Each structure stands twice: as C-alpha cells, then as structure tokens.
UniProtKB/TrEMBL annotation:
Compartments, as annotated in UniProt: Cytoplasm
Name of the molecule in the record: Uroporphyrinogen decarboxylase
Binding site for substrate: R34, Q35, A36, G37, R38, D83, Y158, S213, H333
Residue ranges annotated for the Uroporphyrinogen decarboxylase (URO-D) domain, each copy included: 29-38, 146-162
Family the UniProt entry places it in: Belongs to the uroporphyrinogen decarboxylase family.
Gene name linked to the record: hemE
Primary localization class, coarse: cytoplasm
A Pfam entry, by short name: URO-D
C-alpha cells in the first residue's frame, strides 16, 4: 500500500474501477462484503467497550477499521466502516445497534403520522463520516474506497418491523394495504439515502454500493411496483458523480434484471445463481444494453469447508465471471463473524493469481 499526502489519487488503472467500466483489468479485483468487522481480532480489540453507534460517528475509528482488512488481505477495495442505519440515526431517529441482534428502532413507523414525524437529515451530524473519508483517501493509495447506503426497502423493513425480521410481515402488510403511506415512507428514506451517498461522494469515495439486502423477499412484480421507483431515484441522483454504482441484494435471482434497470453499473449476485447464468438472465432481459458487469459470488459458508473446497469454488467462480464484461470477485453475502481471516487472505491471493 502506498501512502500519498495531499494529491488526489490517480485510480485510472485501479482493477475495481476498470472492471466496473466493463474493461479488462490487470488482475481480477476482489473485496469482501463485511471485510471489516468481527472476523478480525484487531477489530474486536479496537471495538472493546465502544458501542457500534459510537464507532460509526468517530472519524479516526471509522478510518482505522476501514483500513484493517486492506492491510491484511491485499484487497482491491476498502469499504467504508459504517452501517445502513447511520443516516437514520443522523436524522435523529431513536435507534441502536444491539450486539448479537442488529438495528433496533424504539418507535417503529407504521402509519401516515409516523411517516410525517420523520425528521430531516442533519448533514452536520455526519461530518465524522466525511472526515473519515478524507483521512482514508490520503492513505489508500491505489486501493479504491467504496461508500455505501441501505436501499429504501431494506431500511423500511427495519423501521417498520422495529428490528431484524425473518419474514418482513409487517413491512409487506403495510406495502400491500396502504400503498400511499408506503410510498411516502420509501420516498422519505430515499431522500436520506441519497443525501448520505452524496456526502460520501463529495468527500471522495470512488464507488458506491446500494445494499438492498432483503429485496429478495419480494416477487419481481411487487419489487417493480413498490420498490423499484425509489431505488431508481436514489441511483439516478448519483449518476452525476460518475462513480460506479453497485446494486446488491440477497436471494435476488429473479430480480437481477430489475435491479440493473434501476440504475446499476455493477450487479451484485448472491451464491444461489452461477455468475454465467446471472449474465445470461441480464442479457436476455436487456439485449440492447451493454454487456453486464457482475460482482460475487462465493458462498460465505464455503470458507469453513477447508482449502481444497474453497480453491475449487473460487476457480469455478472466476471462470464463470468471464461471461460478464467485467467481474468483481466477492462473497455472495457478508463475511460471517467466525470466519478464519487467513482463509480470506488466501482467497484474495488466489483470485489475483488466476489468469
Ligand atoms: O458490534 C458489531 O460489530 C456489530 C456488527 C456490525 C458491523 C461490523 C453491524 C450490525 N454492522 C456492521 C458494519 C457494517 N454494516 C458494514 C461494514 C463495512 C464492511 O462491509 O466491512 C456494512 C457494509 C454494513 C451494512 C449493513 N448493516 C447491511 C447491509 C449488508 C448486509 O450484510 O446485508 C445490513 C442489512 C445491516 C444491518 C445490520 N447491522 C448490524 C447487523 C448485525 C445487521 C444485520 C441484522 C439483520 O440480520 O437484520
């Protein structure tokens, strides 16, 4: 890793950005969703006694945690250490990230009055995030920095359910029974998400990822009617910046063309669908569009299966990724907390070595 001081980095040849634009980079870029976090002992040590939400509003801590996996794994991208609920908290919504559970919202939003009561986002509160990005781009050299935000549907699920949910039943009930309130709520969240992403882009991130982690809970028809317009508005609002927009969800095999159409430059794919099949579906849905670029898709659980299995799966995925105009190697979802980080380092090395 090179260290520059004040000069804006020249990332024209950064493998992640080359692949994202549909060109062939010198090596296949690789990073891991949730690469910063509990799989790393140095992360656990730094976070000792520091609540998640405190860490997310401390510029030095954000920068240090973001850099930890870069130092270890020789990945081609850092992802900003933050959380999808950070802009909601910055807006003054009473929520916390509870260890072992995830985001918990004190007063779930389930009606028109709740939507009307949602506060404006206070960008000043997010200054530590912008400051952290400033610190990071000085230190990352040729490693790209990915900013991110939660997509309107996934954030709506936390706000409506009040916390993590397996079936998203209250979310779907509101969506189907009161579309007016639903669209007002998603519109409001789309504003938060857009402002959070714009702040990150202004501060200097090189790419952004929109996490619609739970969108796979929807049929394509419902996705298009209730979610697509809001995610599309977010992604369109970022088009001015010229940074690649990655759009990811879990269990989205049936939604991939719609998620691309929403305005993605790179389509994230989970492990349920081989990348060549994902490319085939994307091409069939939009024959006139440029050849798609994909990101993914090693099953995070495979990292527990021993090196021979891991190596076989990585080689298969790199080969299947050749069907796309560009391939960013990643897991199909986040690193699981019990993962041996040494295996991640080896995966990055292997991906880079395959020609
Ligand atoms: O104390 C801790 O360490 C809490 C664990 C943790 C961490 C490390 C949470 C709570 N969030 C994070 C950081 C985080 N969250 C990152 C860091 C950057 C990186 O990737 O290295 C990112 C990208 C997120 C995004 C996020 N938060 C998503 C989208 C990505 C995904 O995994 O699908 C979602 C759904 C969340 C909500 C959330 N935050 C935390 C948890 C445990 C959860 C999931 C809860 C649930 O199952 O609903």
């Amino acid at each position: 890793m090179t260290t520059t001081s004040t000069v804006r980095r020249d990332l024209v040849n950064a493998p992640l950005l080359v692949a994202a634009s549909g060109q062939t980079p010198a090596r296949t870029p690789v990073w891991f969703m949730r690469q910063a976090g509990r799989s790393l002992p140095e992360y656990r040590k730094l976070r000792e006694g520091v609540p998640m939400m405190q860490a997310c509003f401390d510029a030095e801590m954000i920068a240090e945690i973001t850099l930890q996996p870069v130092r270890r794994h020789d990945v081609d991208a850092a992802i900003l250490f933050s959380d999808i609920v950070v802009p909601l908290r910055a807006a003054g919504i009473d929520l916390d990230i509870v260890p072992g559970t995830g985001p918990v919202v004190a007063q779930p939003v389930r009606d028109q009055a709740g939507v009307r009561a949602l506060p404006e986002l206070d960008l000043d509160v997010l200054k530590p995030v912008a400051d952290a990005i400033g610190l990071l781009i000085d230190q990352l050299g040729e490693v790209a920095l990915i900013g991110f935000a939660g997509a309107p549907f996934t954030l709506a699920s936390y706000l409506i359910e009040g916390g993590p949910s397996r079936n998203h039943e209250r979310t779907k009930a509101l969506m189907k029974s009161d579309p007016e309130t639903w669209h007002a709520l998603l519109g409001r969240i789309a504003d938060y998400t857009t402002e959070f992403l714009k702040l990150q882009v202004s501060a200097g991130v090189d790419a952004i990822q929109l996490f619609d982690s739970w969108a796979g809970a929807l049929s394509e028809k419902d996705y298009r009617e209730y979610v697509f317009p809001h995610s599309q508005r977010v992604l369109a609002a970022l088009a001015y910046a010229g940074v690649p927009r990655i759009h990811f969800g879990v269990g989205t095999a049936e939604l991939l063309p719609a998620m691309r159409e929403a305005g993605a430059d790179v389509v994230g794919v989970d492990w349920r669908l081989p990348l060549d099949e994902a490319v085939r579906r994307l091409e069939a849905a939009a024959p006139a569009a440029p050849k798609p670029v994909v990101q993914g898709n090693l099953d995070p659980a495979v990292l527990f299966a021993g090196w021979d299995v891991v190596e076989r799966e990585v080689r298969r995925i790199v080969a299947e990724g050749k069907a796309a105009a560009g391939h960013v190697f990643n897991l199909g979802h986040g690193v699981l907390p019990e993962t041996d980080p040494a295996v991640l380092t080896r995966v990055a090395e292997l991906v880079h070595s395959i020609r």
